[in-house]
Amino acid sequence: xxxxxxxxxxxxxxxxxxxxxxxxxxxxxxxxxxxxxxxxxxxxxxxxxxxxxxxxxxxxxxxxxxxxxxxxxxxxxxxxxxxxxxxxxxxxxxxxxxxxxxxxxxxxxxxxxxxxxxxxxxxxxxxxxxxxxxxxxxxxxxxxxxxxxxxxxxxxxxxxxxxxxxxxxxxxxxxxxxxxxxxxxxxxxxxxxxxxxxxxxxxxxxxxxxxxxxxxxxxxxxxxxxxxxxxxxxxxxxxxxxxxxxxxxxxxxxxxxxxxxxxxxxxxxxxxxxxxxxxxxxxxxxxxxxxxxxxxxxxxxxxxxxxxxxxxxxxxxxxxxxxxxxxxxxxxxxxxxxxxxxxx
Amino acid sequence: xxxxxxxxxxxxxxxxxxxxxxxxxxxxxxxxxxxxxxxxxxxxxxxxxxxxxxxxxxxxxxxxxxxxxxxxxxxxxxxxxxxxxxxxxxxxxxxxxxxxxxxxxxxxxxxxxxxxxxxxxxxxxxxxxxxxxxxxxxxxx
Lengths: 344, 141
What we know:
The complex is a heterodimer. By secondary structure, chain A is an alpha+beta fold. Chain A folds into two domains: about 20-85 and about 140-205, no CATH class; about 105-135 and about 210-330, Immunoglobulin-like (Sandwich), CATH 2.60.40. Chain A has helices spanning about 15-50, 60-85, 90-95, 100-115, 140-165, 175-205; strands at about 125, 130-135, 210-215, 225-230, 235-255, 255-275, 285-290, 300, 305-315, 320-330, 340-344. In chain A, the strands form two sheets. In chain A, strands 1-2-3-4-7 form a five-stranded antiparallel beta sheet. The model of chain A is unreliable at about 1-15 and about 335-344 (pLDDT under 50). Chain B is built from one helix and nine strands; from the N terminus they run E-E-E-H-E-E-E-E-E-E. Chain B has a single domain (about 1-105, about 120-135), classed as Immunoglobulin-like (Sandwich). Chain B is mainly beta. The chains are: A alpha+beta, B mainly beta. The interface of A and B includes residues 251 and 267 of A.
């Protein structure tokens, strides 16, 4: 019998969307309350205190600051543990302890880079079932962090502006300025809070995908096996895996620098409807991958790029579609395998 | 292996000759260039008899990047010969060649872009660029 994990929540809870929303909302609210309390406390202390006397007693002030810090810490802990619990299986948590093999893999791929300087090295990680595990783009996580940072910053500013707007002092200028900016800051804070919770729910409801591969790097006309590991606590309407080759070109347009991307190859590797996933029963499947014959290898220069990638697309009812990208290294066939290399 | 010779030189003294094998990545994006092989013949080594004979350059081509006729990114290889004259005049000529047998994959999608498809670059015709009016030419074979 597997050992049950300790949890602050009741052990028997319904599966599905509601627990994810409740936990994420509670964690976010705790952080916000802590931030607001801290910002208001510091603002009021600055406005009402004199050099000789604080506006409240030292004990009460300390209590409020400690409470605010506890709320922020607790909320942050719940968010991190929620992301961790949903996204990482027990076996992988234990396997993460031993990272020595990953360093060996990285060194091996760094040596290959010296032979093929224009082929970008996307060094994989050690897999659990298959030999290699592809690295996932961190774009979704950075979006979460950036929206969290912006929303917390704006909430702090709004928490400072609010008492400033209502306090009556000798000069009305700070008050009038605060009254002007407060609605704008509050609107911006609400927008970023909405984006933060949306992204958090996306990541916790639809857990982080994991792709493992039997062979790496790949070559044109090479075949291998892929394994998809999809955790979460949601019913997915459609789960699709794509193989994509994308060209990327960067150019100057006036004073701007623009980047254009174009998919030149897209192949569906796997698709399944009505997929139920839970932390106890994540979805796992194996399927085949074949790089087309005479396909271009991965390429990178200062302004031009050719990139192969695996995209896992998860759609759920009333949830935003989530795309996760895993970069692939496709190497050129060796000169010995290519019969006619040069044609003048 | 590649050979080149100067067909005719009139009125101007050749100060230097450079021969290189380069790859050029471009298309929609800004051009990137990689030099695989480079050879320079300085003024001291240049003589009338030397200019008239064929010159050979030989190099082992790398495994990448391969020639690629993409939609917005193209990679092409060429032998480039550049002749430097006095008064900052120079003449250069490229002779393109194909490395590898890469094709754009069959399954092309109309996905994810907000721009029109660009014209493909012809790789068959050598790109001759003359930056001066000097009466000279370079044959690259």
